[in-house]
Design brief:
The chain is an alpha/beta fold and 501 residues long. Helices cover 35% and strands 23% of the residues.
Length: 501
């Protein structure tokens, strides 16, 4: 039986392990942290459950290819419950509220009542979102294994989205937002994605939500990673935690040894690296950085990154009255050298057990660009200054929360602050990015092959292989890594030879 060594126990590594076991391969996942999950993670503070990842999960509609992948890995199916919100988010600009409703007719009517001067643009926007509901993330085969009929089937399924992609394909989110007079609609288009992102990113997000393909798993990040862990172990896989890889020996065209921080090592027959690719290149040596990633790293203007600073607040009373997600404008405050004039609130009131009985927990998201990572990285060298700056920002946010939610004044207390440096320290994320390179209008969309020149037994998995990254791309690249491995060994016919539940 062929054995696969998997470095990294995040979503892509767990997916790779599950598909390896389903395909009759023996596998073991080595995770450097004490727990699995990678960036899809959570932790406890003072009796509160802090979820640091999933705000919605692409792939909850059974009409989409990726639904089958989530089902294979045990996240969707019998006994798996989803939270279906009526609206994706609420925007409040100086007291004027707008919603990204699941019901697009309702959304259109509300926007028209808010901004009659934007009538034609609103009609076009809603039509674009409606037509974009057919968009499909290819999830069953990697690009190079898709034949003519696979591609034709995919194009036919997405035919209504093609004119939308043509119309909006060269626009950034900033370009699209500036067409509207209404500040509420401009903020709904921006939401919390950088303005340099493709405009179709916003259309894709709202289209998925309206189509029932972006619901929230009950239990949040844990419900994803723990179900995947259990599925993997049930299939006979093995997980070793606290096994941080520090280097990979290469002889000729093969990776021959993985060396761990504790002094142990393993000799891989086949190796799947599901770490952040920047970590992978540190393990195997920068000489293996291929042209694709070298260009991305060398051209941050064309392939920018973003992250978040997150501030978590405990609330002494239930937060049912606060929207599940809200963006409101506020007096500017400074974070990492950049003025911020909005507050993005994520409310976990509908997640049982995230807060003690009679209390609530809020997450505040503050978008950080890749150049701001350098600020946090330098500040971290002085731990006292680092902690003080996190507290200053948390207090600035607190003032704005109490002003916007006067009924809750005096009920908030700072629970936790997380910066891009935190993401880098705990997960190895390049510059603290929790998604891959931003897809801009300066370059064409590319999908990485998942292999590196000169290495025969190394296969890549993870969100960095496909823009814009995130959970769905991490998931499918784990599947693709196993398909590529089997293809290389002339064993593709046994892919998924074990039936899923």
């Amino acid at each position: 039986m062929s054995k696969v060594t998997i470095i990294g126990g995040g979503v892509s590594g767990l997916a790779a392990g599950i598909y390896a076991q389903m395909s009759g391969l023996e596998s073991e996942i080595f995770e450097g942290h004490s727990v699995i999950g990678g960036q899809c993670t959570s932790w406890k503070r003072k009796g509160f459950h802090i979820d640091n990842c999933v705000h919605w999960m692409t792939g909850t509609s059974s009409k989409k290819e990726i639904y089958q992948v989530w089902k294979d890995v045990g996240v969707i199916g019998e006994g798996c419950k989803m939270i279906e919100h009526e609206y994706f988010m609420q925007v409040d600009f100086d007291g004027v509220k707008g919603h990204a409703w699941r019901d697009l007719n309702k959304m259109e009517a509300e926007l028209l009542s808010i901004a009659p001067d934007d009538k034609e643009l609103i009609h076009s926007l809603i039509k674009a979102i409606r037509n974009f509901q057919c968009i499909e993330l290819p999830a069953l085969k990697p690009k190079e294994q898709m034949g003519f009929f696979d591609n034709m089937k995919l194009l036919w399924k997405m035919r209504k989205a093609i004119p939308v992609a043509v119309k909006y394909g060269k626009m950034t989110i900033g370009d699209l937002a500036q067409q509207f007079k209404s500040p509420v609609i401009r903020q709904m288009i921006h939401n919390y994605v950088p303005e340099t992102y493709f405009a179709i990113s916003t259309l894709y997000m709202y289209a998925n939500f309206a189509a029932g393909n972006a619901d929230l798993p009950l239990g949040g990040s844990d419900s994803i990673t723990l179900k995947m862990r259990d599925r993997y172990l049930q299939l006979g896989g093995k997980i070793s935690t606290k096994k941080k890889a520090v280097s990979i020996d290469v002889e000729g065209t093969r990776c021959t040894k993985v060396n761990f921080e504790d002094g142990t090592s393993v000799m891989p027959e086949d190796l799947i690296c599901s770490t952040d690719v920047s970590v992978t290149f540190k393990l195997i040596g920068e000489r293996y950085i291929d042209d694709h990633f070298k260009y991305c790293y060398d051209n941050p203007d064309k392939y920018p990154l973003f992250s978040n600073m997150n501030v978590y607040f405990a609330v002494d009373v239930p937060t049912d009255e606060i929207p599940n997600m809200e963006i409101f404008n506020c007096e500017p405050y400074t974070v990492a050298g950049r003025d911020v004039n909005i507050v993005i609130v994520n409310n976990f009131a509908d997640q049982p057990g995230f807060a003690p009985e009679g209390k609530g927990i809020l997450e505040i998201l503050i978008v950080q660009y890749d150049h701001q990572y350098e600020y946090w990285d330098n500040l971290y060298k002085d731990r006292e200054a680092y902690r003080a700056e996190k507290e200053r920002i948390a207090q600035e946010v607190l003032k704005r929360l109490e002003k916007h939610y006067p009924k809750f004044a005096g009920k908030f207390s700072v629970l936790e602050t997380v910066t891009p440096k935190s993401f880098n320290r705990y997960t190895g994320a390049f510059k603290g990015a929790y998604m891959g390179f931003i897809q801009t209008n300066l370059v064409k969309k590319e999908v990485h092959s998942g292999v590196l020149p000169g290495l025969d037994n190394l296969f890549l998995a993870g969100q960095w292989l496909q823009t814009p990254g995130g959970l769905p791309n991490a998931l499918v690249t784990g599947r693709f890594a196993v398909q590529r491995l089997l293809k290389h060994k002339n064993m593709l016919q046994q892919f998924c030879c074990k039936k899923t539940k």
